[in-house]
Amino acid sequence: MTVRGLWIISHENGGNLSIRFSRRFSTVEHRAKSLAGSSYVAVPEESTFLQLLLTELGLSDSVDVPPDPRPPLASLLSVSQGLTLLAGLQTFLLGSGSKPDSEGLGSRLAMVSSVLLQVCPLGTPLDVPLPGTPTAPTSVGTQKQPAWKTGLHRGRAVVNVGLIETVRSMQYGNRSRQDLWDVYGTVTCKCEVEGVLPNVTVTLSLPPNGSPLQDILVHPCVTSLDSSILTASSVDNYDGSAFSGPYKFPFSPPLEPFRLCSYTSEVPVPPILGSYQLKEEENQLRVSVTLKLHESIKNSFEFCNAHLPFFNRDQMGVVDMKVSSGQLDVSKEKNLLVWVLGQKFPKSREVTMEGKINFSGPTPGPSDPLCTKLTAYVKLHFKVPDMTLSGCYVDQHSVQVYSSAKPRIVTSRELQSKEYYIWNSTGTAPVSSGQMMM
Amino acid sequence: MAANWAERISAFSRRPSGFLSGTTAEAFLAELLRELRDDRATYSVKILLLSPLCEHPTLLCCSDSVGEETALELMSVFAQCPPKSVQFRCHLLLALTSVLICTSCVKSHSRASLDFLDVLLQIAQDTSDIHTDGSQRPLRAIACECLRELEACCPGLLSQRLELLGGLWQQETSRLHQAYAELYTLVLRNAIYQLTQETGAGAEHLKALLGGNTSAAWEADQESGLASSKDSAILSSLILGPMGTVPTLHTGPDCKELRSVLSTLLDESYLLTPLCQATLLHRLTEVVAMVPGVPPAIFRTHLLRLLGTSEVSLLHATLLLKCAFTDSLFSSEDEAFILKRLVVLSQHLLLSTPEKLFYMDCILHFPENRPISCGDGDETLPVLLTPQLASALVPTVFNDSATLLARFNMLSLVYLEEGEEGQGGQGLAYLYEHLSSLLSMVENGCGRELVVTFFRAAFLFLYYFCHVERYSNDLTKQLCQLYLNHTKLAPHFINLADQTQDRLSESSWSVGLLKALQRVITEAPLTQLTSHDLSRHLKMLARVAEEGEIIQQSTLTFLSSIITPSSSSLCTGGDWRLGNEILRVCRHLLVHPSLDSLLTPLADVLQLLVCHYADMEIQDHARLYYTLLTTLSREKLAGVLAQGMEEGGRQDKKQSLSCLIGEGLTSTLTIQQTERAVFRLIEAPPEPRAGDINSNEVQKGPEEASASMEAYRDQFSDSSFASEITLQYQLVHINSHDSHFDQLFSIRLHFSLTDHHYEELGDISVPCLLRERPSAIVQLTLKPRKPYPTSLHASAIFTSPDGHTWHTTLPDIHVAFQQTFLPLPVPSNWGRGGTLSVFEGLWDEICSESGDSAMSLFCCQLKEAALNTLVEKHFLPFLISDASHKEEFKVLFFLPPRSHILLKVSSEEDAVHFNIATDNWELLSHVNSYLLKITSL
């Protein structure tokens, strides 16, 4: 349950590797040595570490069990704890966003040392770095304060519950290959409630005939779970008799926003059904796209865009396209068409795009190993406020807070797309399987 | 100064060994400690100064005593540091913990470590700040953590404080209760482990332990606690899978106290961070496993919460719980549920890739209630993992490499189990289709990562399904096509061939692939061949030529056509590198088993190179191969070339120039090292001494004693006089039957000294050493500076009958003290009288002088007969007095260059007295041990 050393390595675009931070835990090393005996391998010095990391690093990974015979990773609690610590440090250093800014990174790197003093002073991970410093007042009563709660809230009680459903899809427009789609939801909470260990219960409900929520994962602050909540699973055959709510999640909230739970759901149809056809005609490509919004979906988007990238071709020359609705942006440098559909589909709920593109530009466009020849896709990006595909919702009145002051309760929900692909039906679409996985 | 320290500390942590080579550990440590005491330095600098002590305590404190002193220093710094410098005090505690643990001071219960333990316990108990600002809370947290680490490194250290720690944990309401809980559970776990090691320990002891009752029951434990801390089992996790055994404590069903403690800990575990919860859960799992009196059902109420969690470490701790208690805690429905959960998590969108990979690993090491295999660490499929369930994890082209390969591996295992019929067959078809789509991506020219992923996936496929010929043959075909279009992938192909050959020794797929590659290479039209392609083709063909089963005619035809200027212009440039690549193929062909049938075409190819290749060196090299081919018998040729190839092996081929040129020659041109010693030098039996002093009694030396002394002394005006000792050795084979070394020639022995007491030795040549002949005699001439016993390192270079030159190391030669003795060097015509007068003269001088001279007496119990034998055996050559004169033997050892040891040996009533006089007192200790040795025999 221990870490022998920790290195933070930055890998810049040019391929430059450098160690930005290192810390080794001598007492853990001492334990590793006495446990391993003659098969002990010392942690290399920082100056040789990088090179060894790139070539071979044959350290025994264990301080919990003797290194011989080599134990499977699954038997070492250190492995999952190490993963958690590293993920926590990564979030601390880079934020939850994708690109780190070098300045912020530098200042946060300078703080790693004092962060480790709190979360891993002697090589045993105790916690992940907390977003804020624990400055808030703490308890003096008889009630024990949770170690994961950085302080106590004082002031007006507000509970904010946001439900976001994400839909993914792979549509092939091909009889031999089944279209795929799936939906997953996450419930995020921010609870400003007084007390050392206040009780809050959030309930998720489904409309009548709604298909049960599956694969539910909960935040560790959830105090108890009913076994029926966990029974439905996406890898099972749905037997129709499964529990379908309401789903109650009693918990005691931490101060900061957190993801209360997540689920997946099986919905009968994808929200937007598309077809994409390309035809190669001397020096030009004939393009035809149709998108149809399913009738059960609220026709009110925050945004809806379709991206059509073209790879492994010369740059676009003449683009002669017509759209039945919305507008078309052409980015010739990127060989990309962006069809901006706006907030609404027309009454017919169907839009089309037709036309020809000529790839006669002077330089080659972007390349991609997957999208060669007629293998191409349309990728949809959309967001629909105040709706979910599964029908799942959090009723404002179902949020219970056991505290003296009456809290203000805010709930919201939305549907968004991610990895929503419509493949050209005249080309070979990449293999996927009977289920949806990416 | 501060900036300077930052630089120095970072230089130290980058390369501690390098840094310390520029100074010494003591000096650096002293500097650090001085600066830590300096009031002018800021606390942020001081915190920096502590990091070398935290991270590399044993480098700075080379011994336990230095560690002890350093700890005392740091403790006094701690005592003087104002309480408000909390951060610095925290770091000081960490540094102290590191130093004391790593230098084993804690293990030996040193003064400083006991003091430190008291300091930590005081801090842990000091809750005086609770009603003020709580500013000392971080210090308390660190103190608890230090105590936990001390207990972790020295299990049982805090067993006696269990009750105190339990009280602290229960009283604390701030977030610190977590630190106390962690500390308490570890101490509890270690204390119970110790009880399990006690014979006869039971419920009473457990009760006493929890009640902090340090009565007589505990006295014995204290001792054994320390003893068992040597046993490393206590350091490691006790939950090791189905075959692991856990030591148990037999308490009967009555362990109310323990049960109540465990329940409280479990109920409050919710208040801990997930990481600490996981640790706590694991510790409690160990405790319950050790005490069968507590039913595992104690965990049951927490299971649902744990199984629903999104935290990887909590779910993992739950899996380890299952591993420990199997069906006594988990029903078969639970088991099915957990497995499904793992499958879901292995592909869950919201989890990170490392977490998903980890869950897949957990599936392959699933702790089943009733495992079929013995869980020896190999990957096995849980029985409940059906193809239908596993289908959620089929690899797709959208997976990242690691995920793709992990899924490919798992699904291969699933379909392998299913067999080729039905679902297994469909699954296999899917996997192959997937592999093909990866191949087409490689075909389309993707990045290196995808290429590597494809070849790894191909290896996995072959590893499991090589026997399914319709796929493996088709894969060969597709790979050949891929190679022709992408010759730059040649190293990957060679690697794939090597790996499949190594891992699938019973399959011939690898040879089949190489054969097919040979065909496509040799049959492709030459006109389209570029020099890059050619170079890669030659690499492939060299690998193909390593296979004895593959017919090589087409390779030779290909070689001949590319070298012939009329058919191809590729070699007209005379590129040296290309030439070497051609030669490399030829070299492999020279040792090919079907060489007889290749003789003419191979000779033609070599002849072509000699005549047409525009690089002199390649021509020479080809000429050498040609000569070898045409003049040597096959066996000899194989002998010359095969050795280097077998020894080099393809596993550890080095990219050196000599390897490019041809490994076979390297062994004949370079000196090779023998694996172990081949021969050694042993002391030769003494020759019978002719012309002993005794036989020359008639002749006389100078008349007077003083004249004798003078004449004797005069001889030393020549500095080389009597300055050497000559030792006789035999050079003999070491008795291992390596027939390769039965006959050795041109042996050149080289000696090197291990001290400064002798002059350097010259090399010695021995013409030959044959096992069946008598051993060679080697005379070793030593020239002492000081006549002390010594050891010599010896090595040798020699030639073996096959013409190879070898270097070997001989066992060390030990020169004993008595081997440096010479008889008194007087002119050969002196008789006993002369020597006797020199003896007496020297004796008198030594008695009267002080300086380097010394007198001593050695006594021992010896019967008269034994004394006579001893004199006969050891002293005869050095005897000055008449051997028949048995009342007193006078013996003189001369030790080059100038030392004398004089003995007067007489039997007194109580013992034999050896009166010793020497002009070099430093020899006395050696004389003493020599006399001890010979008289005790």
UniProtKB/TrEMBL annotation, chain B:
Residues of the AP-5 complex subunit beta-1 beta-barrel domain: 743-813
GO biological process, one term: endosomal transport
Limits of the AP-5 complex subunit beta-1 N-terminal domain: 30-100
Designated name of the protein: AP-5 complex subunit beta-1
AP5B1 C-terminal domain segment(s): 838-934
Organism: Maylandia zebra (zebra mbuna)
Residues in AP5B1 middle domain copies: 254-637
Coiled coil: none
One cellular component (GO) term of this entry: AP-type membrane coat adaptor complex
Keyword annotations from UniProtKB, A to Z: Protein transport, Transport
